[in-house]
Write a structure and sequence with these properties.
By secondary structure, the protein is an all-alpha fold. It has one domain. Helix content is 80%, strand content 0%. Helix 1 packs across helix 3.
Amino acid sequence: MKVLISLSLFVVITFSCSRNGNTNSASIICNCYDEIHSASVQLDNEKSIEAKVNACNTMLSDQLSSFGEDEDKKADFLTDFRACQEN
């Protein structure tokens, strides 16, 4: 059941997070964290926020792992991710 809930949150967050229609992975993950900030201001449900944090952290970790040993791709991703965070 826990896996189903986590998977559902991952799918919802993935499709609900989009900054200016940009769908690259850095923007998707950045927007995921934006959603957490918005939720923390609007909601007082710690479990819901914690689930979103875990989903965002998992997406970030999976994305970084997907680059393997390619440091250039990691650096490019992190540059895009940081630029997104600054907007």
